[in-house]
Amino acid sequence: MDASIRGVGASARPREGRAEVAARVHDRGDGVAGPPLSGLRVALVHDWLTGMRGGEKCLEVLCRAFPEATLYTLIHRKGALSPAIEAMDIRTSPLQKIPGVLRHYRHLLPLMPMAARTWRPRGVDLVISLSHCVAKAIVPPDGVPHVCYCFTPMRYAWQGRDTYLEGWSNRPIRRALARTLLARLRRWDRRTSSRVTHFVAISETVRGRIARCYRRDSRVIQPPVDAAFYTPDPASAFRARDDGYLVVSALVPYKRVDQAIEACRDSGRRLTIIGEGPERPRLEALAGPNVRFLGWQPDDVIRDHYRRCRALLFPGEEDFGIVPVEALACGAPVIALGRGGAAETVDDAVGRTYPEPTAEGLREAINAWEQAGCPHDPVQARCRAEALALPIFRQRLLGFVADVMAARGVHAVPPAPHVGLS
To answer: Under 8 Å CB-to-CB from 217, ≥6 apart: which residues?
Structure first.
């Protein structure tokens, strides 16, 4: 989850060594600890390790399953990850040695493909990458399966390209150079997709992108939600909810938090915003007295707001969208843009979706939902989240890996999908 929403160290645990982590793997209860996964020599790859967000929570499952694996990454902020990840044998790229890299690594995008060339695992039976940028470009040894858990194809080169270029709209020369760079990155990204033998997508939305960008099919395994932590209030389950709405989000442009503010401001609806980011000054200037900003908050505070809010508002278009599922786990209604991953978890039974990414579209959805009596089924919302609980994710992902190893060599590279690629 985005570190700008949740307080760093909000749920810190004592540090464990590799031996302690390894000792617990056999008790994880996922039903796939035995052959063909036991004894595998595994290389794990993650774009960068700078904090515990949704992608790192997926990685943690693999680190617990394969504690003796080598973990390759571009850069590593020591101490910023969970004990299970920090206990790994972590190998960074030459980018790690650049002064100030942990603050400015996103500006090093042109260097990342070259840095990824330094990842050369040897003596392994399996490579697993978790990728939204360059991790899938690792070169596995000949004949070794490479499973890529894909959060999205390289964002800057594909669906985020136009947004990235808009940042240079008043600098035409730099904009032209950036356009050339992104075109090269797109060709490189598509070419390196051939190094993956099996793609796994985090949502049907991302599965479609993989088909369009890489001309490859993929299995969908949605990311986990901590359904054991995000629960309805045990003291008063499914109680009457407050009249205020909630946004939990990083405060950056593509999250469209301004649309939630506009939708609530003029109608006088109360809105609470949890999160931090560079957009906060602009959003505070846009907001009225009925909108309050709480900044980052620890998980237990976020859970309390999920339990009490009238509904969560989710105006952004996400690859998957873990925040709506956390809210559903607490029995909260969700009003979300009907695009991206949220459209796969939210419907009229647990809230409302709306088609156009505008403040007016969100306002109309809130009005219609309220006029209908704020219908939602908290029991169904909870069941929907439980279907994505961590043990189920672990079983699905490790089960898929076990199937890959059991069928090793049958299909080195899956055929192109029978889906539209336009």
So the answer is: 199, 207, 210, 211, 414, 415, 416, 417, 418, 419
For residue 354, the one-letter residue type is Y
Q: What proportion of the chain, given as a percentage, has pLDDT over 90?
A: 69
- Whether 272 and 292 have beta carbons less than 8 Å apart is answered as yes
What is the model's pTM?
Answer: 0.81
Task: Label residues 159-194 b or e (16+ Cβ within 10 Å = b).
Answer: bebeebbeeeeeeeeebeebeeebeebbebbbebbe
- Retrieve residue 41's tokens: 């020599």
What percent of the residues of the chain are helix, what percent strand, and what percent coil, each to the nearest 5?
A: 40, 15, 45
CA distances from 110 to 92, 170, 247 (A): 17, 21, 34
Nearest by Cα to 260 from 276, 274, 271: 271
Neighbouring CB atoms inside 10 A of 37's CB total: 19
Q: Set out the domains of the chain in order of their start, with CATH numbers.
A: 18-224+389-406 (3.40.50), 245-386 (3.40.50.2000)
Query: Which tokens sit at 129?
Result: 């990458």
User: Burial, 315: exposed, middle or buried (Cβ in 10 Å; 0-12, 13-18, 19+)?
Assistant: buried
Which has the minimum average pLDDT: 3-17, 57-71, 203-217, 380-394?
3-17
Evaluate whether 310 touches 245 at the Cβ level (below 8 Å): yes
Tens digits of residue pLDDT in 382-417:
999 999 999 999 999 999 999 999 887 544 444 444
Q: Where are the beta strands (DSSP E) in 74-113?
A: 89-91
Note whether 135 and 92 are within 8 A (CB).
no
C-alpha span between 69 and 59 (Å, rounded) = 12
The full length of the chain comes to: 422
Q: 59-63, 157-161, 337-341 — which is least confidently predicted?
A: 157-161
* Residue whose pair of structure tokens reads 């790994």 in the numeric block: 88
Q: Is 325 helix (H, G, I), strand (E, B) or coil?
A: helix
